[in-house]
Amino acid sequence: MELLTVNQQLTLKSQQVSLTLDPKSVCAGPILISHLYDELFDLLATLGNQTVYLHLDLLLYLQKYYRFKGWRLPDLNFVALPLGYQFQLADLTIEAFNNDDNAFGSLVCIISDSQSKLGYAPKFVPHGQHKKRIKLWKKAFSLADLDYFCLSQDLVAATNDFRALTEVGRQKSLTKYLQHLEADQSGQILLSYEKPERILTMQKTALAAGFNLKLAPASQAFLQALFPFEEPVSQTEAPRDLVVVSTPSATTFDARASLAIQPVMAPKEAKEFLNVIKAKEVIYL
Question: Average pLDDT, whole number, for the chain?
């Protein structure tokens, strides 16, 4: 299996197939999407009759998000990868695992042929809402005797004094923000829908602090479609409101989820992480 890297884009070329991972621009052949990223929506609109491999949750998200936006999902051959089981694509074997990258429907995978084995995890958050997922795939990668481990260089901070903001820390910050508002003052919050779980949790956090995080009916329906078994959080029970706004200001709490890959580990932690993976070669995208 040959690894070709062009413009931070990785293509795996075996004897029978070429598979491009998280492409940012149009490419030939099948592609694998491991996570949401800014260029994905434009990419899907420009692809030809191609097969797109992805997490079932990401496929569900795209279906609901496109409907929420009033867009038409491109007519592509979407294939949901099984998690924790091997999937055969020509002479490539793909084993996908649940991941957490602060968005929705993220996966990492081990891809191999008869010659070599790659662990692919371009974006992840080791201290996120689902850190057990990271622990599980990290163990699987460690036991796999990888020839290569691939991740984004942007995941590693510049200095060892870096401290990542966790989801728990974000919820605590929201509580603190609400507690410091004047008695007759409503809160204001900026939201994005790339990490819908965060919105659900913030609704509960706001309610516990005496605020209703009021969503538009279409936004609430979008969350219900993604989490059909989640009890809707009351938007009228509390005496005060936390209003969703679209423009940032000095009095607004910013809870948006960025799709850009950002630092999540100090260099020291990254070194320890890579020591656990034990790949023969590390590839930074």
Answer: 92
SS3 letters across 143-191: HCCCCEEEECHHHECCCCCCCCCCHHHHHHHHHHHHHCCCCCCCEEEEC
Q: Please, which residues have CB within 8 angstroms of residue 255's CB and are 6 or more apart in sequence?
A: 170, 174, 189, 190, 191, 192, 198, 199, 202
Cα–Cα dist 77/69, whole Å: 21
Residue 268 structure tokens = 């020291």
Structure token digits, residue 196 = 């819908």
- pTM for this prediction: 0.92
Is residue 274 within a helix (H) or strand (E), and if so which, with residue range? helix 267-277
For β-strands 107-112 and 117-120, DSSP reports them as antiparallel
Decide: helix, strand or coil at residue 91.
coil
Residue range 172-216, pLDDT digits in tens: 999 999 999 998 889 999 998 888 888 999 999 999 999 999 898
Q: What share of the chain is helix, strand, coil (3-state, %, to 5)?
A: 30, 25, 45
Grade residue 88 by pLDDT with cuts at 50, 70 and 90: very high
pLDDT above 90 (res 99): yes
Q: Which helix (H) or strand (E) holds 43?
A: helix 40-46
- In the chain, the amino acid numbered 63 is Q
**Which domains, ranges and CATH numbers included, belong to the chain?**
2-159+263-284 (3.60.15.10), 167-254 (no CATH)
CB 108 within 8 A of CB 125: no
Using CA atoms, how far residue 209 sits from 148, 168, 276, in Å, is: 47, 15, 41
- pLDDT at residue 192 in the model: 86
